[in-house]
Amino acid sequence: MKDKTNDNTADSCLPGGLIPADQWALPQTSVRRSLKDAIRHALKQLRAGVSQAEEPFESMDELPELSAAQQRRLAPEPDYSHQAEAIACSLRQARSEGSLSREVVCLVAPPFSGVAQALARFSAPEKPDSIARDGEKWRIIAPPKTLSFNDHEAGEWWDKQDLSRPWVIPELADFWLRSLSGLALVKELFRRIANGNTGAGIVGSSSWCWRYWGHYLENAQMSPWTPAPMEAERLGIWFTYLASGKSDSPVVARMTGDGLYVLPCPETDEAENDKKSKKRKYSTFLRDLAATSRGNPGVALAIWQRALRARPDDDAKLEEAEDKAHKHSEAADCWVVPLGRLSLPNMPQSKEGVTGFILHGLLLHNGLDAESLEIVTGVSTYELSLVLSRLKRAELVSCDQLDGRWQVTPIGYPTVRRHLQSWGFPLDQF
Amino acid sequence: MIDDLGIKAAFASITGQALLKALLVVVIASLITVAVQKVLPRVAEKLGGKPRLYLLASVPLLRLLIILATIVIVVPILVEPSFENMVAIFGALALALGFAFKDYANSLIAGIVTLYEMPYRPGDWIEVDGQYGQVRAINTRAAEIITPDDTIVIIPHNKLWNSLIANGNDGTDNLMCVADFHLEANHDVSQVRDLLRDIAFTSPRTKTWQPVLVIVFNKPWGMHYRLKAYPFDPKDQFQFISELTARGSAELARQGVKFVSAPVSVN
Strand B222-229's sheet: what is its strand order? Predict the structure, then answer.
């Protein structure tokens, strides 16, 4: 019974489980929506320089956005320790089925998928049983403070790391810099993995970083695994799981325009065996969201959070509802703005080369501080600060106040990826 | 002569009104052509990447279509489009062009062949008779290239018949750049090759999904290395080569590998 519960949780917080990366496929959407997106993107590029709009995000309806309390209840950030359990469970399953035989597993995922955060919790003391392998706990390998090494120094650094017992690198992108002296650590790691000089381990990597190293190490065949893409159905399961937690009452979300249902997903309804719910008409919102976010859960959640609306008096009602253990009502918990009425952040007008180098550098390294960004891009400090502040105003990047690390935002990621593609930069496979 | 060809008979029916009409069509066609030639390149500049190349390449093709459409519309306005009349008009035209404007006609025909065979398109980086530059426009008689020193060179299309035309990117945005390093002998060749490869891979301008190659030649004066890589944007080729050369030279000097001070020419 306990196992079954664990499996259900794993299914909900990592719907689809892990799959070999070459089996990953982009969630499908309608031809109409694809054409609309392509035309909208082309028009945005043409308008760059004509319109000086700096407003990053514009709400086109009069319903208020969710308050912090409402967002915590209806679209909270995921609990990564559950995701860590789900990843461990998926890997165990793949090993038992024989589809995974390598000692060192590479988990590649697009930014904001939460894989790095989940892998960082592999040594969490509160969940030792589900993640530990054969009674041994996983050891997290943290990157050194400075990444400048020559080949000899890199070898010495890896010698000091205990790779004989199960180890995890949550994010490979933290171990290198795109500079001459910044490649040695990763080169040495892959050399050791290829030679079989390490014990069992997991290498988590951002898809952008992985693509770069795939080009650099032409002959490396690492057969990476990745979380299954979040299609409409999986998004429905995941959003319901995030909103409901372990409670039995699924959240109800309906479109603002036509009242069509978004959540609960159809499968949940069938289980209820309710005649009324069988007659419900469903919106294509989740399908469009899956395509817009390219199956990326972090991006989908960011857009989902922006799309949710509540009536002004809903705050109190939702708090009341939280107290009731078995709330069941046909009234919507929240409303969803159609994707067409949401405007994602726009790329500000600037020299596309410099902007591209900066954004591409940030994605390759899964975020960087200004000093490292200057080394990686070759852009001067002055110009870098100008472009970064402009990108920040446009809500495409954000800076962590604690460590000064700049990152692309989840809500800005689709715009950034699309523009990098237009400018000819190499993209990830997801 | 003109009577024999039937030209007189063919043009006998032309009225003043028909002439005005034809003139109006020609003026409208010219305006559309000018608009296409001005607007599309500007739109293409905004788009970047492959759409930019496709849009630029469509300019001369659209102009040819407009010219053909104008001829098809104007001729029936001026003369009755019977077989005899057509033979008479085009025969006379061919004679005039053949004798008076032989070279001009040659270039015009080559221009049409250019649109079909596409040895170069707007946006391509080409070299013809020692002149290297980016094709800025393909006009009816000649192509315009702009050199890296910002000089416009007009290349008549008839060069197509008897000149070697080198095209660096051939309608794509992939243009290979080469940085040369002339080094003294007695160093670790493998280490230098790895180092130069890393120089290209760590440049933010490098297309890492395209091949990065380091070729080495053993010369009597030392070793000649050629680092080959593709920049994101062919327009950045000179900056890209300069960056590779500067970073490569600095790192080689740091590693104690010396450059040859004066290459010796050997026959």
Answer: B177-183, B222-229, B213-219
